[in-house]
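G., before I forget:
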Amino acid sequence: MRVAAKIASFQLLDVLRSRWLFGYAIFFLLTTELLLRFGGDATRALVSLTSIVLFIVPLAAIVFATIYVHRAREFIELLLAQPVGRGAMFAGTYGAMAVSLSAGVVLGVGMPFVVRGGGGVAGAAAVLVGAGVALTLVFAGAGVALALHTDDRLRAFGIALGVWACAALAYDAILLVLATAMAGAPLERPLLVATLANPIDLARVIMLAHLDISALMGYTGASFTRVFGAVTGTAIAAASLAAWAAGPALLGARLFRRKDF
Amino acid sequence: MIEISALTKSFGSREVLRGVDLCVRPGRVTAVVGSNGAGKTTLIKCLLGLARPDGGDIRIDGARVGTDPAYRATIGYASQMSCFPEHLTAREVTRILLDLRGESAVIDWELFERLALAPHLDTRVRALSGGTRQKLAVALAFLFGPRLLVLDEPSAGLDPVANAVLKDKILSERSDGKTVLVTSHVMSELDELADDIVFLRGGRVGYAGSVQKLRVFTGQPHLERAIASMMKREVICA
């Protein structure tokens, strides 16, 4: 743990000095600030912000993690040639990435609400920040796993974009088309499974159930809350999202242990 | 002493090491040579635990190379690609390794001084030239006074002065009883340094023995011509 913390502290320093991460935090800060100032009431601003967070955070996390691991590959080799275990090396690298990306979301999205004393939607804003952090963990883990699995940098980058596009753009649309084509069939159970299978849908369910705006939940999310109700649905979605946050990181750790550098 | 027996390693369907048997003698400079793709870097990576062998056994001073990283405390390594985190300074990169090695590590700053790295220590890696990065990589390999030095194309990108400093350091380490394993495509360089040669061909050991014996065996006085002669031979000899 001590070794992992040392590795993480230096990796974190490297990441924090890159302008990219600074720009990421500033983007969320400006977007949140503008929405709170000009986006109508705080609830409407939060709904708009939710869409942006659910769209941008997974993209930024998976792309950044994929590129970072590929660029750090030779340095990882040098550190692994020291008396350092692979577990500590992975924990340090992933930890630094997860902390820095999460900090971008927490500061960028959270700060304008903190300055306004919560703006009347403190609870929902905190849930949104939490969902953003969870999605960061999920997609940063996926990016790391992808970079470890695919040695070709361009190919890994392309797959990362594909994963994001499937989860953020195509998933609900494909399910809607399928459900329409299979109208009349008992689809409730498959749709529940479909919601659990997409962390972005889970984050959307948690967020919009909190705001009680089922019209914006998307096809799978609406079905999810219809079956479970808002409270139970939120609890199940939160537990599933937590499992999602751990899954890709564990896969990454497993790939890292077996990787030939 | 490094003892390697029946070492095999494949990447997908490509067999890179096909049963390497090798003994690297302590207190000597051993050069690993061979054409591109012969398995030099893979052999080094197996030795360092960076690649997992499919079969065979590697022992360093009697201890089996496995999943316990502790054995690497006695090894210094410089790779042929000296890439460090771009936003860290050279001093911070050095600090990471010092922190990982712990308080008990013996520190040898000689190469930092002789390669004139001091003025660059507070410069971020992204602003360093390729040659300076390579100097840093080489200096880091010697930093902890390791008993075994593994140098994969260490002179790539070094200017002649730095290269001479590196050669002097390798020879001085050898005279202190350290073991040096080095790869290079520059045969004239190895001619000056190497006591022993390991010639890899197609993932197997084509020759392992002293430079002197290789010269006698091939009838060539210069190492470069002796190696070229070995490359042309079809028959594998040990």
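The beta strands of chain B are 2-11, 14-24, 29-33, 55-60, 63-64, 75-78, 148-152, 179-183, 196-201, 204-210. The longest helix of chain B spans residues 160-175.

More on Monday.
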